[in-house]
Amino acid sequence: MDWKTRENELEEYYEQIFGANGEIPFSDFLVTIRQHGQIHLLEDLIPPEDLFMPGVHGYLHAVKVMIYTLYIGNYYHVSEKEMPILLVAAKYHDIGRKDDSDDFSHGYDSARWIEKNASEMSGTDKRIVCFLAEAHSCPDEMMETVRDMWGLQADSRYLLFAKIIKDADALDRYRLHMRALNPGFLRTEAAVKIIKAAFVFHQYVLMQWLMKNKPMYLFHTTFSENLTCLEPFENWDMYGEYRNKWVFASERVQNAVLFFLHGEQMMLYCFGYGKELYVLV
Fold first, then answer.
1. Mean pLDDT of the chain
2. pTM surpassing 0.85?
């Protein structure tokens, strides 16, 4: 199966679940990014992987949020002078996290890390980055207060920037599970246009990551009330085909799946879409 076939299948699957609501295809999204006049800014600012903690708020998440930021920022005519500010904020928005658990202060902690450690910006530009990092984990109604705390002018443009970062972050919620993204919470028209593309892009990046890293075990199951067995994934082709007989899950893996379904914190990394769930061990 080539990627184009897989892409079409994923888009059809998405539309079966959520309907066709005018979102652009993944291929159009990819062309827009690749031909973007400011793509060099993204390439220059891609961070080193070892800067980030492992897990669902790590390196891959940061890079995807940067890509979505570039797309949405372009839609709202963010200038070449302003775009690096948004991309640096996207890169570091979760840098203050200690782990993947619920952490309502991580935006504040990220802003303080940026203030102390980030060398890409200085002066007002750096304060804007700090504001964007802190605001991304705050309720929308607090954005103006956070802006004022960073000594920034009462400029509505800064609030637009904050909405861009929030939406770019939200578009990567598909890494958590199929229904983790609620389109009703998105703030920008541009983000709504690429919801389907974000769903497909997550699968594309994930398969590339699996091909590169080949974790020791990858189990597959379906969402159900009675999780008694998982299927081992041993065929490492790009498109996630899985084979082999059903086996009983170890207690460790089974507990991780149950934690995932109940929304609790877990140490293993789960991902999936639809009724399918994969667990990396």
1. 77
2. no
